TrEMBL record:
Taxonomic lineage from the root: Bacteria, Bacillati, Actinomycetota, Actinomycetes, Micrococcales
PANTHER family: CARBONIC ANHYDRASE, CARBONIC ANHYDRASE 2
Zinc among keywords: yes
Keyword Zinc: yes
Protein name (database record): carbonic anhydrase
Organism of provenance: Arthrobacter silviterrae
Keyword line: Lyase, Zinc
Catalytic activity: hydrogencarbonate + H(+) = CO2 + H2O
SUPFAM superfamilies documented for this protein: beta-carbonic anhydrase, cab (SSF53056)
Length: 214
């Protein structure tokens, strides 16, 4: 039923948040999405504040709408998006806001098949030609991930590069943010990396740091 909130309690631990997130993706993949927390009662209940159970740092791609692919609703997810989920100070500060001010127990880095930003970076690495404007900055930030994938396998596919970029991004969150690193060290928070498969809607775990199992 639309508006139904799956689970009797708000996920307060990384393991509970992870289970809730994956259950939502399962419903989406199986075409039994219930569209929870999208009714007027939920809207009214959030007027005084928010308490999301997951921060999702994902690519800006229009096919990667987090609330849809994880079957969530209002107030469930704190979402930060940049092309190629590249980290800059604003993105990192936004993720830290979820950790420090909202006590979100799970941080997700979300990449996807056939990522255009990763594809553009692969082209630049191969040809030496850089894109114009500020897109160049995106390519420069993704280049280390593409090079790392090529060191592992010189014939890496775009999707292999995407998975490596998700892993590199998730690791960098902990390296560059003492706030996030402390949350993981204290087991208050977990950081995971997922790749989203466009054909079947499945989100696949490729990186984890923190207690996501009960």
């Amino acid at each position: 039923m639309a508006g139904e909130d799956h689970g009797n309690t708000h996920p307060g631990t990384p393991a509970q948040a992870w289970a809730r997130l994956m259950e939502g993706n399962r419903r989406f993949v199986e075409s039994v999405a219930s569209h929870p927390n999208q009714d007027a009662a939920r809207r009214s209940s959030l007027a005084g504040g928010q308490h999301p159970f997951v921060t999702i740092f994902g690519c800006s791609d229009s096919r990667l709408a987090a609330e849809i692919i994880f079957d969530m609703g209002l107030g469930d997810a704190f979402v930060v998006r940049t092309a190629g989920h590249v980290i800059d100070n604003t993105a990192l500060g936004s993720i830290e806001f979820g950790e420090d001010f909202l006590d979100v127990p799970l941080i997700v880095v979300l990449g996807h098949d056939s990522c255009g930003a990763v594809t553009a970076t692969k082209g630049s690495v191969e040809t030496g030609a850089m894109p114009a404007g500020h897109v160049r900055g995106i390519v420069e930030l993704i280049t280390p991930s593409v090079l790392a994938a090529l060191r592992i396998d010189s014939a890496s596919s775009i999707d292999s590069m995407v998975a490596e970029h998700v892993k590199q991004t998730a690791a960098r969150l902990l390296e560059e943010s003492p706030i996030i690193a402390e949350g993981v060290a204290s087991q208050k928070t977990a950081v995971v990396g997922l790749t989203y498969h466009l054909n079947d809607g499945r989100a696949e775990l490729v990186y984890s740091n923190g207690p996501i199992t009960a």
